[in-house]
Design a protein that fits this description.
The complex is a heterotrimer.
Chain A (H helix, E strand, L loop, with lengths): L14 H5 L3 E4 L2 E4 L17 E6 L9 H9 L14 E8 L5 E7 L7 H5 L5 E3 L5 E3 L9 H5 L6 E2 L18 E2 L5 H4 L6 H8 L5 E5 L6 H8 L2 E2 L11 E4 L2
Helix pairs in contact in A: 2-6
Chain B lengths: L1 H19 L17 H22 L8 H8 L14 H9 L18 H4 L5
Chain C lengths: L6 H32 L14 H25 L3 H4 L2 H21 L9 H4 L6 H24 L7 H24 L12 H27 L6 H31 L1 H11 L4 H23 L6 H28 L8 E5 L13 H24 L16
Helix pairs in contact in C: 1-13, 2-4, 2-7, 2-8, 2-12, 2-13, 4-6, 4-13, 6-7, 7-8, 8-9, 8-12, 9-10, 9-11, 9-12, 11-12
Classes of the chains: A alpha+beta, B mainly alpha, C mainly alpha.
The structure holds iron/sulfur cluster (2 copies).
Chain lengths: 245, 125, 396
């Protein structure tokens, strides 16, 4: 949806609202909290670490609003083949023994110790100061070593020439891509597209915020409910946590 | 001294060759006031673009004046709404003339941001 | 050269081989171009199986490149004349295989046009980036070593140069093993056994290739190998095959032992279809039992048998690498232990993979490049192993 005329016209965005502690989008919904709003000309800072808390008890197995929002935001093709990209996907789990069903969205976990970054020969895979893990596609040579190294199958390889350039993130054949945590929106003071879509549907299973701010909604919630990180045995310190697994 | 003469000859040959190919007649699109002096831009736009690109992608610095999307917004042709397409289009025309490959648009859009979806698909304006 | 072929026939044969090599290499380049313009959609690879058949070929060649040098190392480092006579050929083969392997690896990139970025932006924590240095270093050290062998005035440096190559190739093979050993993400790879496994693999595969090439060259020149030397080289191959078997068994047994890995081992060894068949028939049957029989059975061990054994080892090498690289990726990642997972992105499911024609062409093209370098090198320079007549063949 980069056709919105205000997309590249950030200067018109009022920074004032972003500086408040939380933005209320609907009564009683604290969506997104800004500890420190950053002027656009300033680099991302390690004082902030962006994270996501996914409450699987609120996630509906029939819903894929987050997935289609991502597809629309980034102009991704509908996934029909195993070569098509999937930055975010719905996974349906059945617990062995009990048969309990869990539904959840799966994407790049924005690891603090990302193996994709460690193995990348060119430094194309990198972690921004605020914890967002990205691929610098200008530098990616398409070796796919990062895809071998990611324990979450978070990355896709662009197997075909890209025709649709209307997405928010430039994409190109022969490079690797994955969830950017909607870095272009985050830098504008907005939440990722999937997070917005999920609350629009009324599920509010995704909570986005600054893990380094003890007063942020996400930090408070992480303190009050039991959550897990996926493949915690690997000690990668993902920025994403899951409730109800 | 010899070397100097050789160099001069070489330069003469170069300019001679360049003179033989007609300068491209570029469709500058909407044009207007550029973010820097046009001659400076002609010579250095790639450096500016590279630098801002690295700062934006890797550090998250936004809103710099040398944005590729900004170039496209101003210089897309009013005929086909693109900086590519023929040897008259702004980016393609000059790059063909200078024989320098551009791969920006394998990933980036060659059409202005404010365009409606219909125009993006290549339909009528 | 004491050749029984008439010079005309000899030249014709050489031209034919050259043409064949050029054709295969050209097909490989065509495949690479096709993959680059259409994208990897024309391969069998996908977002689950990200390294396909070209990696099997490339890693085979790179690992063997270090192994062929074994003969040279024994010659220079341990001062054995029999081996030293073979050192130049070994050095040439190593460079040829490395060039072929690296070409395939590079042309399989998503953006081969940007390969220079790997040099201008270097990530020092990446094992992959270390390997780029190790590979180019091997070229340099082997070239130096060949120089000390061929230029008499450099003779004094032969031993140090040989030692350098010897060290370098151990580090290089360890590095190749580490490429996989650091992949904690996938069941097949995170194992401390991989670096030693790759070292013995390189010894066995490299030696097998060396024997095949030596056989072809001697036949071409109508020469016979001294039976003592033949026996020594053959027994060495046997020892290597046994060492590989031991480490492969250890790798699978330790995997099967850990509960987390047992389902994966079941897949590889019992119900993996093509992968399972390649393991048992390709690696265990043709790649291990057959060569052992051809080497150690009482009546076996003749020239033909050794050639058969070496070819068997090479077939086994491809089978084992296919099982390791492809089989290791078709099996799903275990992200949610204790749950059964289903998704549109192959979570919890085996992903089928079938190599496409361009992948075969690219892989074989790499072998073609290695073949061409060897062929031309052997003809232009003097690489034929010559054993000094009458010199005793040391016994051990
Ligand atoms: S989830 Fe995968 S792609 Fe994302 S940061 Fe971690 S290792 Fe990298
Ligand atoms: S595919 Fe690109 S991002 Fe991934 S490791 Fe290779 S160069 Fe780095």
């Amino acid at each position: 949806m980069s056709d919105q005329p205000d997309n590249g016209r950030r200067q018109f965005l009022s920074r004032g609202t972003a500086a408040t502690a939380a933005v209320a989008v609907a009564p009683g919904v604290l969506l997104y909290d800004f500890a420190r709003a950053r002027p656009p000309a300033e680099p991302a800072s390690s004082a902030v670490r962006w994270g996501l808390l996914i409450d699987t008890t609120r996630c509906d197995s029939g819903c894929d609003a987050c997935v289609s929002a991502c597809r629309e935001e980034n102009a991704l093709p509908l996934p029909l083949k195993p070569t098509d990209p999937q930055w975010i996907r719905k996974v349906e789990l059945t617990q062995e023994g009990t048969g309990r069903k869990v539904s959840l969205p799966m994407m790049c976990q924005h690891c603090a110790e990302p193996p994709c970054v460690d193995v990348c020969p060119t430094g194309a895979s990198f972690k921004r100061a605020d914890g967002i893990v990205l691929v610098d596609k200008h530098r990616c040579i398409g070796c796919r070593y990062c895809m071998m190294a990611c324990p979450y199958k978070a990355r896709s390889f662009v197997h075909e020439p890209v025709e649709d350039h209307s997405g928010a993130t430039p994409r190109g054949q022969g490079t690797v891509e994955s969830c950017t945590l909607c870095v272009h929106r985050v830098d504008e003071g907005r939440a990722p597209a999937c997070v917005d879509a999920c609350s629009r549907e009324g599920h509010r299973a995704l909570l986005f915020g600054n893990l380094n701010d003890p007063d942020s909604a996400i930090s408070q919630r992480l303190r009050s409910v039991a959550s897990v990180k996926l493949r915690a045995d690997l000690n990668l310190d993902p920025g994403l946590s899951y409730v109800g697994l | 001294m010899r070397r100097m003469a050789g160099l001069l000859l070489f330069l003469a040959a170069l300019t001679g060759a360049a003179a033989a190919v007609p300068m491209p007649e570029l469709d500058v699109g909407q044009g207007g006031h550029c973010v820097n002096d046009p001659q400076v831009m002609r010579q250095n736009h790639m450096k500016f673009l590279y630098q801002q690109r690295d700062e934006t992608v890797r550090l998250g610095i936004r809103g710099g004046k040398y944005s590729l999307a900004g170039c496209v917004d101003c210089h897309a042709s009013k005929v086909n709404h693109s900086v590519l397409g023929s040897d008259r289009n702004f980016c393609q025309g000059c790059h063909t003339y200078a024989a320098v490959k551009i791969d920006c648009f394998e990933c980036h859009s060659s059409k202005p941001r404010a365009l409606s979806a219909v125009q993006r698909e290549g339909g009528h304006p | 050269m004491t050749t029984r072929l008439s010079p005309r026939t000899e030249l014709r044969n050489f031209a034919l081989l050259l043409a064949a090599g050029l054709l295969v290499a050209a097909l490989g380049l065509w495949a690479a171009h096709f993959m680059e313009s259409r994208g990897h959609i024309v391969t069998g690879m996908n977002n689950q199986v990200v390294w396909g058949l070209p990696h099997v070929f490339a890693i085979f060649m790179i690992v063997s490149a270090s192994g062929v040098l074994n003969v040279a190392s024994v010659g220079s480092v341990f001062g054995r004349a029999v081996y030293k006579a073979r050192a130049p050929l070994a050095g040439l083969l190593a460079m040829a295989l490395l060039a072929g392997g690296l070409a395939v690896l590079m042309l399989d990139l998503g953006r081969p046009d940007r390969v220079i970025v790997a040099a201008t932006h270097y990530n020092p924590t990446s094992v992959f980036a270390w390997n780029v240095l190790l590979y180019s270093g091997l070229f340099g050290t082997v070239a130096l070593y060949l120089w000390t062998l061929m230029d008499r005035t450099m003779g004094a440096w032969n031993k140090p140069a040989g030692f350098l190559v010897f060290l370098w190739r151990f580090v290089l093979t360890t590095g190749t093993g580490l490429i996989f050993a650091f992949l904690v993400a996938r069941q097949a790879y995170a194992s401390a056994l991989l670096p030693p496994l790759f070292i013995v693999l390189s010894l066995a595969w490299g030696h097998a290739i060396f024997l095949v090439v030596q056989h072809a060259m001697l036949r071409w020149n109508a020469m016979e190998l001294h039976p003592g030397i033949q026996k020594r080289l053959k027994n060495l191959l046997g020892v290597f095959v046994l060492s590989v078997l031991y480490l492969v068994a250890a790798y699978h047994l330790t995997n099967a032992y850990f509960a987390r890995q047992s389902a994966f081992e079941r897949y590889l060894l019992l119900d993996g279809g093509a992968v399972t068949a390649l393991f048992w028939l390709g690696y265990v049957g043709v790649g291990t039992l057959l060569p052992l029989a051809l080497i150690f059975l009482p009546k076996a061990g003749g020239q033909r048998c050794v050639l058969g054994a070496a070819l068997g080892v090479i077939v086994g090498a491809f089978s084992l690498l296919y099982v390791f690289i492809i089989g290791g990726q078709t099996y799903p990642l275990q992200i949610f232990p204790g749950y059964h997972a289903v998704s549109s992105f192959a979570d919890g499911a085996i992903t089928p993979y079938a190599p496409s024609l361009p992948e075969w062409a690219l892989g074989l093209g790499g072998l073609g490049i290695a073949f061409l370098i060897t062929l031309v090198g052997v003809r232009v320079l003097n690489f034929l192993p010559r054993d000094v007549p009458g010199q005793p063949v040391e016994s051990n």
